[in-house]
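User: ok so my PI wants both of these folded by tonight, can you help

Assistant: No problem, let's get them done. Here's the first:
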Amino acid sequence: MKIRNLKAGRKRQLFILGGGIMLFLLLLVIRPSASEAKATWLWNTKLIQQHSEDIIAFAKKQRVKIIFLQIGGNVKEESYRNFIREAFSAGLEVHALNGKPEWALRDHRREADVFLDWVKEYNTASQPEERFAGVQFDVEPYLLDNWEKRQASIVKEWVENAQSWTRKAKEMDLEIGAAVPFWLDDLDVPGADREIPLNRWMIEKFDYVAIMAYRDEADRIYTAAKATLEEGDRHKKPVWIGVELGESKEGPGVSFHERSFTFLTGEITKLVRLVKGHSSFAGIAIHSYEPWRDKLVKWEQSLKK
């Protein structure tokens, strides 16, 4: 009887061990590879005041390299310093994020200058490990009500303003990037001596771009990002490929919001294989932190059932 019980116990141990190995192998399959760099946008700045440890732990677990952190929300400078110091210790970069559609207009250029001046003054008053490693402009003038009627003149002002921002950032010795839509290759730079696609111009002027190639399948994301990746290859500039996880008002096929976490990670793995021939590929930029975190938590909870 004792021998029979002993054998049964060993069988149970082997079953449990085997199940653990299978779960481990499953995680290896559906989670991103270790060599894959990530970035994410963090819009709710107040989260860094009470949840900095959670954010940084999540970022480390998901192999995030850069956090694009929205500036605002009446967050005190000391909160930024504490968060960036913790992120720095974890091997993460934090870039100051700001922008709105109106910033493309000449009359609103001063607002962007105020943002850059604030970053400069903040970095000057902070220790090296507390400083922003860069800035990112998220300026989307195509959301303006008069975009269709004034597209050419708005693009002209957008280009002039972006030229001013990049020049100012270089004077500050600060890396500057831009979040851009995937279709900028359909627009030309106004007033240029020859035809220059706007995506090429952005690649030339900014240190990096994060292309909003918002689709919910790897093939379609790659198709949307390809033209900008090729410009990045030619100009030796990094290109982050942005994917959307939040709810979208643009219709179906844009966001992974309704997709499972396993489907998301599977498509990201496919996407990384598709872009491996592009030297400009910097990694996947997830939009944004909160829906990404929520999707991961939901998936982890499902494993425990």
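One down. Here's the second:
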Amino acid sequence: MKKFKFVLPLLLFVPFVALFAGCGVETKYVSPTVSVNEITTSSLEKSINLAARSTVSVYATGKTLSGTILGAGSGVIYSLDKNTGNAYIVTNAHNVYDSDFLTSDSIASQIWIETYGSEGTFVTEKNGGSEIVYGEQAISCSCIGLSVENDIAVLKASKSDILKSDFPKATEISSAPAHLGQSVFAFGNALGQHLSATTGVVSVESEYIRYSDFEDLVIRCIRTDAPINNGNSGGGLFDETGKLLGICNAGVDDAENIGSAIPISIVTGVADNIIYGYETKSYSNLKQYSLGFDVVGKNSKAVYDSTLELSVIKEEIYVANATFGNKVQNGDMIVAAKINNGSDINFSRSFEFEEFLLKLRPGDTLTLFVIRSGASRSIEIKV
């Protein structure tokens, strides 16, 4: 997200004004002069146009002791009820949360979204300061929950006529994780200049990055060379079919085209968890369960899948730091698990198991399939 702190002295306004009012740049979409019947579209164009329907610009305002923070970021429509005009939008927590905000929950006092083609929000100078002037079609939202640790927040828009219209739609979720060399594109509110796309490939399918300016977090991410600019935060990283692979969250200032996105397994795990707690009124924000043990990955190695022609990394997953009396024991190797009567889920990386646990709900039964001393066994744990 691009954030601006507007407090005296006036010198602090200069970079912001130069970006939005300087350089003689004015952007305005002009419809093509050719007949629509003469336009042909590639698969990538179709995918970007699909993503445009589910991506939104996000604007947030919050007061601190030193002044007002105005921010521009992005979001993705996660679910949408056309009959009511109600929608859940997934974005980054750092777009709407700041520990310095004076609200009781440290969430921005105003949050608005705009859909593609309906943008009209801009920042203007007024009375020696700056303010956001929201467009006529901006939609007010509330934050129903967030996880700072995963940098994911869920917004809710209610009874919006714009969301009832034909154009907006919920995003389509990729059922497969990102892989090395995969063609992708990012779509978001880059530099607060409204929604646009950048293209690239997946450079690293899974790595851990440390945030330098938000809660000093360490988060698992996808690395991509699709440019991720300020304002892209919270927007989508999509595969070449327009399905959501992750939520863009960071870029590297000192490098060209090194950006990151939070993988879809984390996004859906956190978002569904928050929405469940909100709708059932059983808890707020993210509910994670302590099972009394940790897991560690060992013997990591790259494996070439000749059928898919892909290089994948696999490791063995072991129980560690198990509490006394726990049904599992240190050294148990976890190979699969299921929740209640669901399907068995196999794991090849330790983070896959950890993210699977985000699906747990109050009263669930978790069944672990482990190997102990060379023998297979199943262990049931009541949540």
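Residues 4-25 have pLDDT under 50 and may be disordered. The CA atoms of residues 246 and 267 lie 7 Å apart. Good luck tonight!
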